[in-house]
Structure formats: structure tokens, C-alpha cells
Amino acid sequence: MSTTTADPATSNAPEAALANRARFASLVQRQGALAIFVVVVAVASVSFDTFASRGNLTGIAVQASFLAMLALGMTFVIMTGGIDLSVGSVFALGGVLAAWGSQHGTLVAFVLPLAVCGAIGLVQGLVIARGGLPPFIVTLAGLLFARGLLLLLSDEGATTYKVPRGSSFRELAQGELLGVPYPVILVVVFFAIGALVLHRTSYGASVLAIGGQEDAADLMGLPVQRTKVLTYVASALLAGFGGVMIASYTSSGVTILGVGTELEAIAAVVLGGTLLTGGAGTVLGTLVGVLLLQVIKNVINQVGSLDSDWQSVVSGTILLLVVTLQRFLTRVERR
Amino acid sequence: MTPQHTTAAAVAVGDPVLQTVGVTKSFSGVRALEGVDFELRAGEIHTLVGENGAGKSTLIKVLTGVYTPDGGEVRYAGETVHFRRPADAQHAGISTIYQEVNLVPLLSVARNIFLGREPRRFGLIDVGAMNKRARELMAELGIDIDVTAELGRLGLGSQQMVALARAMSVDSRVVIMDEPTSSLESAEVETLFRVARGLRDRGVGLVFVSHRLDELWELCDRVTILRDGQWVHTGPMAQTTRLELVSKMLGRDVDEVRAGGATEFGASHRQSGEPALVVSGLDVANRLHGVDLTVHPGEVVGLAGLLGSGRSETVKAVYGALKARSGEVSVAGRKVRTGSVRGALASGVALLSEDRKAEGIVPDLSVRDNIALAVLPRMSRAGVVSEARIDALVDTFMKRLRIKASSPDQKVRELSGGNQQKVLIARWLATEPTVFLLDEPTRGIDVGAKAEVQALIDELAEQGLAVVLISSEMDELVEGADRIVVLHDGHVQAELDSTDLSSSELLAALAGDRAADPQAPIETEGQHA
Amino acid sequence: MSDSTATATAPGSTGSTGGPGGSGRSGTRFDVDWVRRNGVFVALGVLLLANVFLTDNFVSTGTLRLQLVQVAPVVIVALGMALVIGTEGIDLSVGAVMALAAALIPLYVGYGSVGAIVVGLVGGVVVGLLAGVLVGVVGVQPIVATLGLMVAVRGVANLFGGEIKSIREPGLVSLGTGDVAGVPYVVLIAAVVSLVVWLVVRRSTYGRQLVAIGGNKLAAQLAGLPVRRVLVTTYVVSGLLAAMAGILLAARSQASDPTKLGQLMELSAITAVVIGGTPLSGGQVRILGTIAGALLMQLITATLIFHDIPDSTAQIVQAVIVIAAVYVQLGRGKARRS
Questions:
Q1: Which of B357, B389, B409 to mutate to test the interface with C (most CBs of C within 10 A)?
Q2: Were A229 and a residue from A125, B79, C26, C176 both cysteine, which residue would form a disulfide, CB within 3.0 to 4.6 Å?
Q3: Domain ranges of chain B
């Protein structure tokens, strides 16, 4: 009772070797960022006394937490084979709305940005899923729209709303539990939920199926449109929430935030081993990607003599190296 | 457990389970189906045959909810139904298995089987239970596949089995198989057939569509023939001869068909002079092990073998599209650099690839640009394209190959499969090859175009072209080729002179060392022609 | 002259592209197709007319000149982008390349303006070459490859440039601000580049091959087309054109600001290309459409500014227009599928 027709004696050995190689390649593909991350952290700890200090590590974690929120949403979007260029603007918009809202109460500071950002995500999702427009263009328009809205709200960027002194809203990003800042805890919780949703819910299954082969998902009767809409809503909500966090952290609605952040989020997702073609990836990988980018920034700051412009040079180069490596590995895998 | 159980009333074996009554469907004024009656009974395997454009796929799409009929009705388990989406038909218990596997390659086998209906615990997917049920299902079907393996890592045949298992797991009343065998090896086909028969014996109604006519007699109980969007004939398969079938499909006289033989190939060709193509010791990692091949000008050499035997790999390696580890290729006495498509083209080798859509046409370009594609540098001076030269070239080939297009500027995607194939043949002939490698040149095109392509191959050989012909159809090889090289597991197993060869002899050669295997290749019952 | 696509046919073999007649297809389909091909020109015309009547002082050489000078760099970048998109690619690095080229100018101005310009252009070519190799040879997805380059090159530009540097070299200053018979050099250069790219797409072997590769890469490969070479060339051209735009922009403003220069230019360029009717899925390049797309976006922004509508609203309007334009294109896709 076998469906394989090849003679086992002749073909098994090379095939087993091939399978091993493929497995190794896929491992490196998925965990490559982790390896680089570990190496960078190890080298940095040895080279700079200040790196491994509790204060510095906490700083890295908190700094990374905002991008992490965006990248989590982006991971889901990319897994459906889409892309969300609007998250940087939505992130900034969320921050401004939260700062403005905090003047009217902490609840408003949460509800208002999430409602507005969620609405933007909903419209984008509907246009993409129902209208069938390319995500790249739709979210590019979303980027312009959200930034325009932000400028409108802040008198063309002239007004920076402040979170009132003593507002409990500041606690969200400035408080801590057992020495761990809230943003870090939030990221851990959100990513855990993200992983669970992806691997253990039917929504997650649909996400993976759509990214793998959208026509197939459709023919299998999966709710393709609904899943896509949900994914863009989730992405916008997470970006908006990242904005809420940063408003709380900086106690203000900084209008110039988030320019190019969508690209950083994409970079983190790609570094984390999620394929831009969709269908495969892990939320944990994305977290590693985010941390890697943040650690690089930190290390370059530690090297006092280096200009901070090196940050982008190094980040960009690492991104290119990782994707080049991934590319060669997929070739091995396919062979 | 699953909701599918409750939707349709039970249908006794032998009673109609899925019917169309007077179904009509038009696309922008063009009738694709005209009052078609079709009846599928529970517990039968029913084949739907017809030329391309006869309305087969439209009918299937109506049955599976992809299209809504303009007129007439679809009845399922005795009740009139209106499927709006594929999902509706599926929930009702009609599963479809397509030619290309429509599953998710990066998910596990078990995930694929239960996608959208995963067993759950506390609202979350219960992976343990899912894998267990998948294993049970596979055991029931007699399929030996690791259910936790990533689907994409399995062979196409195994993937097709998973698609079947998925259909089974939803307790389908009706399974529609649209060209499921076109990319399967014969042993895989056997397994597929065994599973299909198992389903039939349980009272499932199956619709089976295949371009390989032989399979129909082996598997199917009844046949319905469509022509030009109209119903022509329904009857028991066993009482339909191959000749009748073809003549009804074509709407031609039986005698006319017989006179032409099963194919349009004429007599054998002369072999003259020095060989045009000499391949020696061609070796491709894990695929080919020292293949030798010689083709003379004016000769058609058939390349036979079961799927995976290395037929396509051989021509691809000769053409440089597949990297050879070792081996030599020479054309007209000159050595060709292996591993380079451009080198092969420059030496006068052309390859008509098996996958017309993915590797052949550029769908959005015009017929004209598609024909001129490979010879652009030759049509240019100092990097500037000469429109006049292209026009002359395109005009010549459109006439010579009788390409039916509204104008040379029509987009290739709008042409029928047969005409697309002719455009590609024109593209290659424009390169003025000395060696033409044809990989399944007549697959998936309608009978009329098929005959034209066969006649063309003959004509080209007459004119001195060296042709290598790959085909899964015995008739085509036996009648079309002067010699047949049989491949098995990447090496040459036999070389046959086709002058007095019969299909069954070729079959024996193909079966080769596994003649003892009772599950071995395609049966011989269908070889009526 | 109607718009040309590279998929277009020999001149004279049909009634050229666009105009009614010629095609024997059903009415609705034809109309949608016509809108897709020419919508951008119609929109541009309508907006121009509206401005002539509604905007004070619109019809003055000063206004028109300013608009053209402002749109010229976008046009130049968008032309390169159109070629890249035609190969089913995308080039996010163009803005950073502009900054890099501009940052190199003050450093090498000692070699004279020509020397500095050459160095700047070489900078763009090098980045384009890297992008081309990553995409064409290594096989990295264009969006990722050029995203990485965008980040890295912007950093490099900052490292070279540091802070805003003014450009005083007379040759460069006159390049940015001078004119011939009232036509600014910048506009003249954009016009010449447009003409050259248009000819290349329509008449050259490279142009035909590019479109075929964008339409079906595998088939193009098997037809013996020099796929790698065409891809690499295309990204090099895009880099070169972006560098040219960067230099012109720096020369015009007589300053090089590597942090700001060319920011979001990739998005403006993509918008112009898409609005001009080139599908992101590759296989088509519409040069005149791209130019019109850039002009349209510029005119929209200008119109809003003329009427004292703030930047914020302008962005929102742009967003809506982008979606609407793509929706029209999609209408054609749907009509064809059925």
C-alpha cells in the first residue's frame, strides 16, 4: 500500500540526504535572525560593559516594544501575501489621537485612537478584499490619508498635544510590574496571543492558507474576504495601539513620528524569516527581527565614535545579507 | 458530526444524485452551454467528454457553484439548488478535485484535510485529534502518507490523494475530478482509481474528466458527450467504442475517423546523413544517469517513459534549461555548451515546453510579439526593432500554421489552447532550428488542433528538421515517431523501431522490468484504435 | 499622439492605440478600456481647464514654469520607476539614491561641476547595479532588495553629507535655475529624458524584452532572452535617473540636504506610474501615461495650494485619487476576466 513508485533501493539514499539538507536550509531560513541576534548580543556584552547592564537591556526592550506592535500586525498581513504600508502613519495618528484624548480622560485616550485606526484598517481591508485592489496601492493611499488626517488634527503639524500631568494614561508605558516595564509585558502578551491565534484558530489557518494559495483557500470554502479584512483591521489596531503606547511613553503626541516605520516593520518581519510571498512564518521570528534591529541601533550608539547614521547603513546591509542568504537556502531546499 | 451530513437527503445507489436540466449559460453573448441535460447517479463513475470548447468545464463550473446558470436548473438529491459560490456546493457535499492541486503547500497534510473544519478543544484547534483522524482516514483509503508532513514536500500524486482524502472527510455525495490524472505517474493513477472505485462502491457519485481516453474505459461506468455546448450522447462506457466516442465528440463520420487512423501522422520519414543531434552521457543530479540520444535530420524520435522517467528532464537538459552534471550535446557535429538556453538556441535547438501557460506564452503580449519573442535580436539593427521584418515573419507563420486570431495584435491570452500552442510553435520555428524538441505538443488542446499539430510535425520532419517527440499517448508515439527511445529512471531502457510496433508492444517496453507488478501501468483494454 | 504601451503594435498596423474604432469588442468593455488608457489625460485636461477659469493668475508663464520645474524631477524618477514596474518589480531606493547623488555633489565640486555631476550619477548607477544584481541575479524580491538599499543608502548619504551644504558652483547653479528661451534647463532635461525613454520602450529590443520579462519571466528565460541583463540594466537605469533627479533638485535649491532630499519620492513616483495606467503586475510600460500621472498629481497639489487648502487635505485628496485611479484600472481587469 504505497503511493510512491520509485524503487526504494535506488532512490532513498539521495532523497534522504536531500531531505536533510532541505530541513537544515529551512531551519536556517527560519532561525537565521536568531543566530545573528545571539552573536550580536554575545559580542556586544563582551565588548561593552554598559551593554549587558539591566538599564540598557530594559531600554532596548522598551524601545523595541513600539515597533514590535507594528511588526506583529505586519506579520499577519504579509502571511496573507499582502503588505501594509500605512502602519507608520497610522502609528503616528494613534499617538496624536491618544495624546489629545488623554486630555479628556484615560478611557478616551484608548478608545478614540483604536476606533479611528480600526476604521482605517477596516476601509483598507474592505477595499483590498472586496474591491480586489492591490494591497501595496491601497495601503500607500492609507499612508497618505492617515498622515493627512494627522496633519489636519494638529494644525498642519504645528500643535503637539500633551498628556496632562498626573494623568493615569502615562502609567501605560511608564509604569512597571516587578521591575518590568508595562510595554515589555504588553509585547510578550500580544505576541503569545498572536502565536496562539496563528497556529490554533481557524482564523490563523485561513491566514496561512490564503498566503499559501489564495485560490485554493477560496475553493476550499475558507472565508477569504473576511480573513483579509480582519487582518488589515488587526494590523491597523496594533499600529494604533503602538501609537497609544508611544504617546503614553513620551507624554505627548509627536506628529513627525512613524515616517518610514512601515519599512522598518517590514524589515523586521523579513528578518524574522517570514516569506514576503506569504504562507509561512512565525510571530516569534518577527519578535527576534525587531529585537535585532533595536540591538544594532543600541550597539552603534555604544560605539561612541560612530555616527548614528551607521545605524541605517548596518540595518540595511544586514537585511540585504539575510535575504540573500534566505534566497540561496531556498534554492538548496528546492533542489 | 459535520454539518454536511444533514443537508442532502439520502439517495439510493442507482438513483440520480446530481442533475442538470436544460442548463444554459452564455458569456457576453456567446453560448457556452445550450439546454444541457446531465445526470449523475449515486454509485457510478461518469465521464464527461468533449473537445475543448464543448462546454465541459463550463458544465463543471455550474455544478460546483462557480457559475450560476442563465437558464435551466441544477438538481441535487432530487431538489433544485442554487449554488452561489464554490463553498455552497461544497457544504452541500459536492467536492471537486482539480488538475492543479488546490491545497496549501506549506501546511501539513492533516491541516490541509481539515482546513476550515478542524477539530477543536476549548475553541482552539486540537492538533492531536486532527492528526489522529487524518491518519485513520488515510488508513481507510489505503494511502501511506505521513499526515504531519508539509504538503508541498510530497509528490504531485500524493498531493492528489490528499485532495481526495479531503473530499472523503467531508462525506461528499459527489466528487468531481477534473483532469486529476494529467500529472500523475501510472502507479499513482492506479491508486487514484482504486480510491475512486472505493468511493463508488460506497454510493458516491463521481464525475471524471480526462484527456487520456484510455482511462475512461478502465474506470468509468457511463459517458456523456458534449459538443459545441450541447448534449450529444449518454450511455454505458462498455458499449461505446473508442471510434464512436471520437466521432461523436468531433461530429464526424465514423469511417472518416477510421480512415485517418487515430492520429494525423503519416508514414515514416527517411533518415539521411550525419546526425543532427547527438547526446551522450547526459547526467543531471538525481534525474538522469547517462542518457544517450541520436537524432538524424528528417527523423522523429519519440521519447517514451512513465512520468518521472526523465523524458522532460532530457529535453530540458539538452536545451540548457536544466543544469547537466556531465555529458555532451552536439548539434550538426558541433558541441553545444550545456546549461545555457541561449547557447542551445544559437546552435539551432528549440524546445516547445510542456507547460504552455507557465513556460510558454506571455499572456498579455500580442500574437505578434509572442511569435517574434525569441528572434528579437535578429529582427533588430543596433538595438532598434524593425517592425517591417517582424510583420513579414508573423504574417508568414500565421498563414503557414493557420493561427486563428482576430489580428496579429490580439492578445495571446484570448486565444484557444490549440492556437496558443501554434503561436509557440511559430515562435520556435522562427528561430530556424535544426533540432526541435517537442514536449507533449498535443496535450490539453482540442482534437482538431491536435490533428493539425500532428500533421505539422510530419511536415517539419519531411523538410529535414530533426524532431524529438515526447508524448504520453501511445498512439502518438507509435504512429508519429520513426524510432522510440524508452526511458526508465533516468536512463535509456530500450530503443524501438516503430515501423511494425504496436501500442501494446510499446506498453510492454514501458512497463519494462516491472511487468511483474500487477499494478503496473495503463491497461490495454482501451487500445481500440 | 496617443499614449503608447510597449505592448502596442506596429505603427500603422491598427488605428494606433486608444481612439475609438478599430476594436470590434462589445461597447462596455471598450469604454472601460478607453477610460483606463486615457482617463489620466482626461483628468489632467479637466483640471487644467478648471484652473484656467477658477484660479487667478493661473495662465501666466510664471505659474506654468514653476509647476513644470517642480514636477520635472518627479517625472524623471517616475520614468525609471515605470521601467522597473514593467518588469514586475519596484524600486523603493530612488529617494535615497537622490539624496546620495546630491550628497556627493558638494564633496566633488572641486573637480568642476561636470566632474561632480558625473560622480553623482555614478553613485546612482552603483546603487542601481546592486539592486539589479540582488533582484536579477540573486533573486531577492524587488521590494525587499530595494527596501534594504533604501535604508542603507540613506544612511550612506547622511554619512557623506552630514548636514545641509550649500552649492555655489556657478555651473551647477545655472543648471538648476537657468533656461533656454524661457524653458528652464530642468524642464528641458526632463523632456529629453522622457523622449529617450519613450523611444527605448517603443522601439528598442531592450524595451520589448523588458515587457516580455515582466509578462512571463519563465517563458522569457526559455525563449533565450537575456533576463538577468535586462533586469540589471533596468535597475541601473532607475538608479541613474534617480541620481539625475537628485542632482537637479540639489542644483535648483542650491543646497544638498541628505536627510530630507528625495524623501517619499519613491511613493510619488509609484503613484505617478500607477495613475498613468501601468499595472503593478508588470508586462506593460506606459510612458506618456506616467508623465501625465506625475503632472496630474502635481497639478492637484498646486490647485489645492492656489486655493489655500492645507497640506493635510491635499494628502487626503491624493489618497482618494490613487484609489480611484487603480479602481478604474481594475474595472478593465474584471471586464476581461468574465
A1: B409
A2: A125
A3: 11-259, 284-348+433-523, 357-432
